[in-house]
Amino acid sequence: MRHLLRLAVIAVGSAAALSASPVLAASSSAESGPASVYDLSVLPSFNGTVTQYIPSAGGGVTGLLLSDGMQVLVSQDLSWDIPKIVKPGEKITGTGLKGKALPIIQAFSLSGPRGSRSEDAGIAMPQHSSEMVAGPDIVVHGEITHPLYNIQGVLIGAILKDHTVIRIPIRDAAKIAAWLKPGAMLYAAGPGATGVYGTAINAHQIGPDAQQLLSVTADDLPPPGPPPGSAGYDVIKSAETH
Questions:
Q1: What's the CATH fold of domain 137-215?
Q2: What is the mean predicted confidence (pLDDT) over 203-209?
Q3: 20 to 30 Å CA-CA from 139: which of 97, 120, 128, 189?
Q4: For 15, left (φ over 0), alpha (ψ -120 to 50), or beta?
């Protein structure tokens, strides 16, 4: 009898120790990202079903496309948590600011169907520029389902029916806005990535078909210097100031 009582006491003590352990308690709870110091509950809430990730040409994720056509866009910090929170075909809820006229939401918090949640801890609005992506060109073509916007609501490309994302420098996207409407066919080539999050490219050639192509240049490329053989070809401008 004493032996049974001793075992019962040990079992109760072990259970209490496990529940008090911060490491084990954390592992049993839903995975969450860093919390913001701001009260995000005052922001408008949204929800929807995820159609696809909005991938970057570098292989990451910049947001979500919902089944109603809404683009949920996030800061770079929050983007890392998206694949952990939700998968295509699942429901997403969150808080954020909706576009006045455009189908975009700048999300500051996201919650997934399995209890995972993350918040934009810094509430920063980074100026997303075209990624410098190296590698062989990926050629894509198909029907446009949605124009693509950045977090500031600026047109930067298109999403195709097969979920491919084509990113275009801002100045060039504005010039060819008529090509980027839903239902239009689009052909593009440029470096990018194809992976678990989808396919995305930074286009350097784009057009309605392979016979009508416009060359575009990344926004953050440095301006061309003097041609080889000219007087200024070997001059490094930054060195002239020192």
A1: OB fold (Dihydrolipoamide Acetyltransferase, E2P) (2.40.50)
A2: 95
A3: 128
A4: alpha
DSSP state of 32: B
- d(C-alpha 194, C-alpha 130), whole Å: 17
Domain 45-119 has CATH 2.40.50: yes
Instruction: Output the pTM of the full model.
Output: 0.74
pLDDT mean over 171-177: 93
Nearest Cα to Cα of residue 109 among 213, 32, 188: 32
Torsion of CA 109, 113, 115, 120, to 10 degrees: -10
Where are the chain's structural domains? Answer: 45-119, 137-215
Identify which of 221, 18, 5, 33 has the alpha carbon closest to the alpha carbon of residue 134: 221
Q: Burial-class residue 142 by CB neighbours within 10 Å (0-12, 13-18, 19+).
A: middle
**CB within 8 Å of 119: residues ≥ 6 apart:** 33, 34, 35, 36, 40, 78, 108, 109
